[in-house]
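User: Can you help me understand a structure? I only have the sequence.
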Amino acid sequence: MTESGECLTPPTGWVLLAPGDAALTKNVKAKGPTWLVRVKVGRRLMSRGIWADSKHIESAREELELKRATPQYQRKRAQDLVRKEKKHREYVEQFYREVINFLNFHPRYEEVAGELARSVTDLATPVGSGTVARTEQISLADRVRSAVVAWMRHQTTGYDRMTITRVKGRRREVRRQLAGSSLALLQQYQVGDDIAENCPLQKALKKLSPLKVFVSR
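Assistant: Let's start by predicting it. Here is the structure, written out as tokens:
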């Protein structure tokens, strides 16, 4: 279906090439006409691949396999992987430090801050996770805030068990309310208040790290 609503039938001999191999897709596009397939998921348009002549796809795949089998390509690939891994590790540590800064816990809860920051970072930063931490469309500070709020929503509230009416804007409203309560909870740690034993954050961290016992000093 085109954007104008016209229903199309792929030409004879065309097949759908799934997304996932950018180099292969690029090579196929260079060989002739293609149709890009996208579906709307929420507010985002997600690629579902391209329609193209099956002969072009097979030819492009064979050429790419030959190129990837050369020693030169293998060396470059290995170097790229090392570089990407180094860049990823640096980003993970940067993200962790930014979470610590965002939490800004009182010194008496320094250990709690470190454990929470590491848990948020481990969940948010894996490559390909699709989390807000992997986007470059917003600032690092906004990524960190969103990641912390999301972690709190799933770990310290009943959000995952809630039955939310299918009314436009209702889920967003619930998330906004839970974000407010989560930030209010974090504020207790920021000012150094005594924390109740049934604190949902303490419970969540102990569940994730059962051997850890956090106490206020």
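Now, to help you interpret it: The radius of gyration is 24 Å. Strands lie at 14-17, 35-41, 44-53. Let me know which part you'd like to focus on.
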